[in-house]
């Protein structure tokens, strides 16, 4: 038990190293792409620490946590980023932490909160030991937390952040609940910086105003709200003048974003200098529309996304997307799993655990792609 506690603490620290080394600290202030390159020596050190840690945790899990059941519910399986995330969760819990495969069950919330609440209720009835939840609606957290609390089951929320009041309640009332995610303000800020780092700072036609369209994720989601707000804030805080031609919800979805971008390009034509997408799936859709309209990214239009999907990072390398932001699903999956293991051990954990984003531009895109494909 003691060993596991120590090991998990180290594991958590090492999970942060990749991102911290990449971003030069937390907060919403950006850094240059150059300063984000993790040195080879650091990476090697992190890898060996992570290996030692994982082995020790695995041994401990084999003893103390053998037979423990982890119930996971993802807001919907049909989401590019959350698919990477859930694959890594399953891999890390079973391969690195040693939970039995049959004891890690992942369910599809299908974008329906009522359905997901039922699934969670079933996990509770079947006496799962810990839950990792990516809620359909973050506003359901108080109700779900109370259900878990009544059953004595700890819960780790991921990706869709409950509001601060709810997170504070866990702390004040000593509820075994915690959140693991990223501060979306940081990703928005990085997107704005990527535009400011272009040769004409986003003002392609030189009229002194950056004309943009904003393709949003699900607006109920704080990631969508903050990315929308802070990408533009980075521009205005630098003194730039901006004009929003259009803001529309694309629900994180490639096909919806393609349609929105296509209609906007028809309506506003050359006026559009920048297309901000709250994620990469939508940036991929926007790129299809941009190419179909005969426009050229980085020449007569800029395009940015978030997540660092491999296709999008390849597009950054090829000059077909201006930049993206790595939404580090490896560190998030690791931190969430480590939190679940800690809670299973009866430890008290922080109520909010943030992993850093990493800004991806042409300079570090190849490096990132190599890491993603490893
Ligand atoms: C965001 C991610 C999106 C989508 C969303 C789901 O963090 O950037 O692509 O997966 O989470 O809540």
Protein traits:
single chain, 374 residues, alpha/beta, Rossmann fold, 2 domains, 6-stranded parallel β-sheet, 4-stranded parallel β-sheet, 13 helices, binds beta-D-galactopyranose
Topology, element by element:
Elements: H1 2-23, H2 40-65, E1 70-74, H3 80-96, E2 104-108, H4 113-125, E3 130-133, H5 141-151, E4 155-158, H6 164-172, E5 177-181, H7 184-196, E6 209-216, H8 222-237, E7 241-249, H9 254-268, E8 274-277, H10 280-292, E9 302-304, H11 310-317, E10 324-326, H12 329-344, E11 352-354, E12 358-360, H13 362-373
Parallel strand pairs: 1-2, 1-3, 3-4, 4-5, 5-11, 6-7, 6-8, 8-9
Antiparallel strand pairs: 10-12
Helix pairs in contact: 1-2, 1-12, 3-12, 4-5, 7-8, 9-10, 11-13
The structure holds beta-D-galactopyranose (GAL).
Beta-D-galactopyranose binds next to helix 3.
Domain Periplasmic binding protein: 70-347
Signal peptide: 1-21
Organism: Lacrimispora algidixylanolytica
Could you describe the 3D structure shown?
GO terms for molecular function: carbohydrate binding; metal ion binding. Residues 70-347 form the Periplasmic binding protein domain. It contains 13 helices and twelve strands. It has 374 residues and is an alpha/beta fold. The chain has two domains: 2-182 and 329-357, Response regulator (Rossmann fold, 3-Layer(aba) Sandwich), CATH 3.40.50; 185-326, Rossmann fold (3-Layer(aba) Sandwich).
């Amino acid at each position: 038990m003691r060993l596991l506690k120590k090991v998990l603490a180290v594991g958590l620290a090492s999970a942060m190293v990749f991102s911290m080394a990449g971003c030069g600290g937390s907060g919403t202030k950006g850094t240059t792409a150059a300063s984000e390159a993790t040195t080879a020596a650091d990476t090697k050190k992190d890898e060996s620490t992570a290996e030692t840690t994982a082995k020790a945790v695995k041994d401990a899990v084999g003893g103390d946590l053998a037979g423990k059941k982890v119930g996971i519910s993802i807001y919907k399986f049909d989401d590019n980023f959350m698919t990477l995330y859930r694959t890594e969760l399953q891999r890390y819990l079973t391969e690195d932490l040693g939970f039995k495969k049959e004891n890690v069950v992942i369910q599809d919330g299908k974008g329906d909160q009522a359905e997901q609440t039922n699934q969670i209720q079933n996990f509770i009835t079947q006496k799962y030991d810990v839950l990792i939840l990516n809620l359909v609606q973050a506003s359901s957290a108080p109700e779900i937390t109370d259900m878990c609390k009544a059953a004595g089951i700890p819960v780790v929320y991921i990706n869709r952040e409950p509001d601060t009041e709810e997170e504070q309640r866990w702390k004040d009332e000593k509820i075994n609940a915690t959140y693991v995610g990223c501060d979306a303000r940081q990703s928005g800020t990085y997107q704005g910086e990527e535009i400011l780092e272009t040769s004409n700072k986003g003002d392609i036609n030189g009229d002194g105003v950056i004309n943009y369209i904003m393709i949003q994720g699900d607006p109920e989601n704080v990631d969508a709200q903050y990315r929308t707000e802070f990408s533009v804030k980075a521009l205005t805080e630098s003194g730039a003048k901006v004009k929003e031609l259009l803001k529309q919800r694309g629900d994180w979805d490639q096909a919806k974003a393609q349609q929105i971008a296509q209609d906007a390009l028809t309506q506003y034509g050359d006026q559009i200098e920048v297309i901000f997408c709250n994620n990469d799936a939508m940036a991929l859709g926007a790129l299809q529309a941009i190419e179909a309209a005969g426009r050229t990214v980085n020449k007569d239009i800029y395009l940015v996304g978030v997540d660092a999907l491999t296709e999008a990072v390849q597009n950054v390398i090829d000059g077909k997307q201006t930049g993206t932001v790595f939404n580090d699903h490896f560190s998030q999956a690791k931190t969430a799993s480590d939190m679940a293991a800690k809670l299973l051990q009866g430890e008290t954990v922080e109520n909010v655990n943030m992993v850093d984003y990493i800004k991806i531009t042409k300079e570090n895109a190849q490096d990132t792609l190599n890491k993603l494909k490893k």
